[in-house]
Structure formats: C-alpha cells, structure tokens
Amino acid sequence: MDFLTDQDAKKYQEDGYLILDGLLSPAECDELRLRMGEIVDRMDVPEHCRIQFSTNHDEQLKTQGNADYFITSGDKIRFFFEKGVFDDKGDFTVPKERSLNKIGHALHAYEPLYKTATHSPKIQGIAKKLGLKSPVILQSMYIFKQPGIGGEVMPHQDATFLHTEPLGRVMGVWIALEDATLDNGCLWFIPGSHNNGITRRMVRTPEGTYPLTDFVGREATYNDKLFIPAPVKKGGVVLIDGEVVHKSEQNASEKSRHVYTFHIMESQKTKWSPENWLQPTEELPFPALYTK
Q: Which keywords are on file for this protein (predicted)?
C-alpha cells in the first residue's frame, strides 16, 4: 500500500501542506538524534561567531562573516547558533548542545544516516505519487528549536529563498524527530495560500558588493486568524509546498523540538534561479532523489 494515498495527494494540492504519521519509527528518530549529538560534540565553532564586539567594524566583520558562512554552506555541514549564546569573550553562555539553531545544508550528501532517511522508499514513493519525474535534493537542515530560547520563525514562503521558474516546483519535507506541539513550537499554515504567488525574493547581490544577499519585494501582511496549527508526532512528516505561507512560534517550553528537514525540486522543465543564495557546486551538484 502507498504511504501517500490519492486522498492525501489531493489534500496536499488543495491546502499546500500535509501531515502524515509514521514516516520514521521512534528508533530511526533516536538514531538520527544520536548521530547529531556526536556531530555537535565534535563541532569547531567558526571564528566569526566568537568575535568580541568592541567597535562597529568588529560588528560588521561578524555580520559579514555570518553572511559568507551562510551563502557558501550549500555543499557543506555548518553550524548556526541562537542569539545570545556567546559572551563578550566568545565563550558559550549555555551548554554547547543547547546553543544551536540549526545545522545545514548538506547533511543529505555527507551523513550516511541522513542520506538514507532522505532517499527512503517512503520519500521516493511520496514524490512519485505527487507526479515528480526528476526530483533533486536542494538542501537539508537539522533544526533544534531549543527549550526556552528556540526563536520564532516569522510567516514566510520557502519559494522566497528557493526560487524557480515556473514557481511551484519546490517541496519541503519536514520530519519530526520529537513530538512537535503547540507548546514547543510546531508549524502553523494558512491553507490554500500557495495559490497566491510570492511577494518577496531573497537574491544574491552582484559579486563584490555587500551585503551578499538582499530582498526584492516585501513579505505580505497576514491575518493571524488564518493560521492553522500543524502538530505532528515523533516520526511524522509535514509536506510543505514552496509557496504556502507558514510560521512557527518561539519555544517557551522545557522540551526541544528536533526536526530533520530537506527540500526537493522537480528539475524537469524547471529553471533554478542563478540569483538564489543556494547554488549547486562542482563538489555537490543537486543529487537525484530517485536512486537506481
């Protein structure tokens, strides 16, 4: 039996998102979390994160360091921290495993357990059921949503950051490695909002200019009452159309909300924008989802 039914596919196309239970077993979730613990144990904190603020110049260096570190992370595994987790000497103010916002963006390429989860028969089956002919994997992230400090994610559309011509070729796959609840910052969606296009794009600026990325257009203002919560059990998955509007609240609870998430794109008859922050490289062209 297909993991994704015809009815599920119809609901995804109507709402722009879909929640499915049981993509991964609890044991598979624990294995991915355990491996991430090992990666965090061994991480080298990038120097720009530890810059001690003393002048505007230092602050600019830190900002520029952050931007360069981000824009060149598509084919690497890199560490992104929550605000306020370093003191003015560049030392952690919280345990280092509680300091991270996310790790990205090429876990799917270099970490065997994450690669296996990304290319799993269920994921391939979902893509086939949705009619994807030549899907490729754009990027992947591990999101921590730390207890007490996991920041709010403002309403946005993934296509703002991952732009294609035509639109509608990108899908996020968001796997809960722990229960994602109303208390610890589950996703919220505006059903049907994927039918309205996008109002804002993040683009690379011309080479040699700073900042390295900029926004064209503005995020629309959304009515808070239109958002519907999407809690999901450990091992469940949320499929996210690239144009659907979604957000998550701050995690004020004492429980983390670990997630493994990646984006796939139908590459057939699709133009990937050269202005996107994320670009395939010689080291890592976007890998095909369907393994032979």
A: Dioxygenase, Iron, Metal-binding, Oxidoreductase
